[in-house]
């Protein structure tokens, strides 16, 4: 018996890297897979369905069930087609993993509107376009699990990734709303912040300097399997970071207790007086906030 027997999983960006690892592991655990990938290089140019088909062929060779989808998930028609293929070939949609993405890294001083729009379109809009039809289907058919891929670049920040960080931060915000709206329909929502050596990240400085410390996609995949399986129970609305440096950990927005000013108003100088109640101290940050 597999952890995902009888389930149907839709995975975007599954033609390689993390998405491919999720697809193959889910299939081994009994799920039928819609392998979505537009194909092409990591900057989002070009298209090649053979990447998705290669993963499908590998799954079938192991006795699994899978179908390739080469749609552009940054369009409403493309997102809808991922769901349509799941229903057409397997009759349902139990799991959605929004994993597709591109990189166009440059420092903010060199930013261009085109690079900003391109990255947000794939990551943030792509997550929206794929999730909307699937969320509606799950709402009418007993629920499901959605995993949205964020990043420490969006949750914490990273040099040279103003567009990627903005998109990934937006995905986290979208997940928070989906958690609230999906709860009464038995739709569980997770946010994942993974760090692994893939073709998207292989030339990043931290991996060049210490490649042995980087997780492989296969190293991240079991955490995602936990998220989408019954092992995680009824948990929803949580963010898990997964990396070679830090392992697996929950990440949260934190708030200080704060200072409640009088309704009669306050002066800017009052913030200085009550700073210890408003701001985290350096000691608080050392204890609670750590970088990947």
UniProtKB/TrEMBL annotation:
<dbReference type="GO" id="GO:0016491">
    <property type="term" value="F:oxidoreductase activity"/>
</dbReference>
<dbReference type="InterPro" id="IPR057326">
    <property type="entry name" value="KR_dom"/>
</dbReference>
<dbReference type="InterPro" id="IPR051687">
    <property type="entry name" value="Peroxisomal_Beta-Oxidation"/>
</dbReference>
<dbReference type="InterPro" id="IPR002347">
    <property type="entry name" value="SDR_fam"/>
</dbReference>
<feature type="domain" description="Ketoreductase">
    <location>
        <begin position="7"/>
        <end position="203"/>
    </location>
</feature>
<dbReference type="Pfam" id="PF00106">
    <property type="entry name" value="adh_short"/>
</dbReference>
<keyword id="KW-0560">Oxidoreductase</keyword>
<dbReference type="InterPro" id="IPR036291">
    <property type="entry name" value="NAD(P)-bd_dom_sf"/>
</dbReference>
<comment type="similarity">
    <text>Belongs to the short-chain dehydrogenases/reductases (SDR) family.</text>
</comment>
<protein>
    <submittedName>
        <fullName>NAD(P)-dependent dehydrogenase, short-chain alcohol dehydrogenase family</fullName>
    </submittedName>
</protein>
């Amino acid at each position: 018996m597999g952890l995902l027997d009888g389930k149907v999983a839709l995975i975007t960006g599954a033609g390689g890297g993390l998405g491919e690892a999720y697809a193959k592991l889910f299939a081994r655990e009994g799920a039928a897979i819609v392998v979505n990938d537009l194909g092409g290089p990591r900057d989002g140019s070009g298209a090649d369905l053979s990447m998705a088909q290669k993963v499908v062929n590998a799954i079938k060779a192991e006795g699994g069930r899978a179908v390739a989808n080469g749609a552009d998930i940054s369009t409403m028609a493309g997102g809808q087609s991922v769901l349509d293929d799941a229903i057409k070939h397997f009759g349902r949609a139990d799991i959605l993993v929004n994993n597709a993405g591109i990189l166009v890294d440059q420092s903010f001083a060199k930013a261009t509107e085109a690079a900003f729009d391109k990255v947000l379109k794939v990551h943030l809009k792509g997550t929206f376009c794929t999730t909307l039809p699937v969320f509606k289907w799950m709402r009418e058919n007993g629920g499901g699990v959605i995993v949205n891929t964020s990043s420490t670049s969006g949750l914490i920040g990273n040099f040279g990734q103003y567009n990627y960080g903005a998109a990934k931060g937006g995905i986290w915000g979208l997940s928070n709303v989906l958690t609230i709206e999906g709860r009464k329909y038995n739709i569980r929502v997770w946010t994942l912040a993974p760090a692994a050596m893939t073709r998207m990240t292989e030339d990043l400085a931290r991996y060049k300097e210490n490649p042995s410390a980087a997780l492989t996609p296969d190293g991240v995949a079991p955490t995602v399997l936990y998220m989408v399986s019954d092992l995680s129970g009824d948990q929803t609305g949580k963010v898990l970071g997964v990396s070679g440096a830090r392992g697996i950990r929950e990440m949260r927005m934190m708030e200080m207790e704060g200072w409640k000013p009088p309704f009669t108003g306050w002066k800017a100088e009052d913030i200085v007086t009550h700073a210890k109640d408003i701001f985290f101290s350096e000691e608080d940050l050392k204890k609670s906030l750590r970088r990947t």
